[in-house]
Amino acid sequence: MLIGFVGKPSVGKSTFFKAATLAEVEIAPYPFTTIKPNHGIGYVKVDCIDKEFNTQCNPNHGFCVNHKRFVPIDLMDVAGLVPGASEGKGLGNQFLDDLRQADVFIHLVDVSGTTDETGKPAENYDITKDVVFLEDELNKWYLGIFMKVWKSFARKAELEGDNFARAVATQFSGLKVNEDQVKSALFKLKFSHKPSTWTNEELLQFASELRKETKPMIIAANKIDASHGKYNYERLVKEFPNMKIIPCSSDSELALREAAKAGIIDYIPGERDFTIKGNLNDRQKQALEKIKKEVLDEFEFGTGVQEILNYAVFNLLKYIAIFPAGAHKLADSKGKILPDCFLLPPNSTALDFAFFLHTDFGNNFLRAIDARTKRILGRDYMLKNRDALEIITSK
Ligand SMILES: Nc1nc2c(ncn2[C@@H]2O[C@H](COP(=O)(O)OP(=O)(O)OP(=O)(O)O)[C@@H](O)[C@H]2O)c(=O)[nH]1
Ligand SMILES: [Mg+2]
After folding, report:
1. Cα(383)–Cα(97) distance, integer angstroms
2. Which of 86-90, 97-101, 328-332, 360-364 is predicted least confidently?
3. How do residues 370-388 score in pLDDT, each as one tens digit?
């Protein structure tokens, strides 16, 4: 599963990425600072089950603080998108390709209103335009990919009497399209004529629906700490009532995580407080106090960075966190307690989980046991978020 950051230049994509990963990436107040994509590991935050078992886990991957488990996820930061990108403007189409492999997008919008649509300094810029143009460019990017092959592809699929949704999913698998998503897009559109006869306008509608299905999106209202931040955030919420928009200050999150890394403060990502533990100079103290007062005290989700990542994974993609756990023993052979926590796609069953762990576990699956209740679960048992399971096999 891959999360991609999108948005026009200078909105803070790399700042968000760096706050989430602490990777060394370039951040600067001019457009196209990022050209080549940055890949890194961030984390989603899960209530660890170790608390229920009165123990402390030892994660193989990620970390756990105060029974909050941070589970790794892949993140990708790309170059900024400008109006006309799908036709080659800005850095053009080439880097749109970098986005193909993403499962979900975080769209960063600069709510300070101090950058125009190309990322250059501006005053009182109308930020609602950014939401519209970015969606438009992404839809046109899909359309461009479809147009290249559509007529011949659709005609062939019709002639051969293929399952159309499956044929589309296979043809466009590079965009991570699956059959159910195509069916859902077709259902919404209710076109009654053959796909090979669709007009360009109809194909754009189809491309747009499929883009929404395959790359769902959340808006990070970034730079909420800036002087017009809150005002512009409220405008966005009013203008786009059907979109999920979360206030965000990537810059504050980055400062907090760096201070925590340097040992100056204790800070758990996503919390609305921190404790000072090192010796701070006046400048550091003032900067942290400002973040506390203007961001953490002000907004429900603190800096918003953690909530946005969690929302993308658990609400948009509907993934579930699953803990492999022995029914009578929480430690692995090396004595590590609850060493793993995996993220599985929605509708995963006990058998899917067995295959996820190892093909042999899947092939020799007998049953699963719920580590909390010791209840026996069959292969079709639908996994729930934060389930803890042992898989019993015949060999
Ligand atoms: N006030 C404020 N400034 C921010 C915030 N996030 C980023 N910035 C600033 O915005 C500018 C651009 O940040 P980048 O992270 O380089 O933006 P980008 O979207 O990656 O830009 P490109 O790579 O050029 O597309 C920098 O000066 C950042 O310090 C924030 O939450 N608040
Ligand atoms: Mg950047």
Report:
1. 34
2. 86-90
3. 999 999 999 999 999 999 9
How many CA within 13 A on the CB side of residue 328? 1
Task: Report the SS3 class of residue 59.
Answer: coil
Task: Give per-residue burial for 208-228: e unless 16+ CB within 10 Å, then b.
Answer: bbbbbbbbbbbbbbbbbbbeb
Q: In this structure, which residue's CA is closest to atom 21 in ligand 1?
A: 10
Total residues belonging to the chain: 395
Task: Check: CB of residue 77 under 8 Å from CB of residue 5.
Answer: yes
The protein residue whose alpha carbon is closest to atom 8 in ligand 1 is 12
Alpha-carbon gap, residue 46 to 71, rounded angstroms: 7
Using CA of residue 19, residue 23, residue 25, residue 31, what is the dihedral sign? Answer: negative
Token duo for residue 17? 């990425």
DSSP track, 307-355: HHHHIIIIIIS--EEEEE--SS--B-TTS-BS---EEE-TT-BHHHHHH
Name which residue leads in pLDDT, 90 or 239: 239
Does the pTM surpass 0.85? The reply is yes
pLDDT per residue over 51-94, tens digit each? 999 999 999 999 999 999 999 999 999 999 999 988 888 877 77
Q: Quick count: other Cβ atoms within 10 Å of Cβ 278?
A: 11
Q: Which amino acid is at 197?
A: T
Q: What are phi and psi of 42, to 5 degrees?
A: -115, -165
Whether ligand 1 lies within 6 angstroms of the CB of 13 is answered as yes
Q: C-alpha angle with apex 216: 33 to 46, nearest 5 degrees?
A: 90
Give the amino acid at 27.
Answer: I
* Nearest ligand, CA 229: 1
Check pocket membership of 31 for ligand 1, CB cut-off 6 A: yes
- Which protein residue's CA is at the shortest distance from atom 27 of ligand 1? 29
**Spatial contact of 268 and 242, defined as CB atoms under 8 Å apart:** no
Dig out the tokens for 240 from the structure: 């786009």
Specify whether the CB–CB gap between 207 and 182 falls below 8 A.
no
How many angstroms separate the alpha carbon of residue 15 from the centre of ligand 2? Answer: 7
Distance 285 CA to ligand 1 centre (A): 22
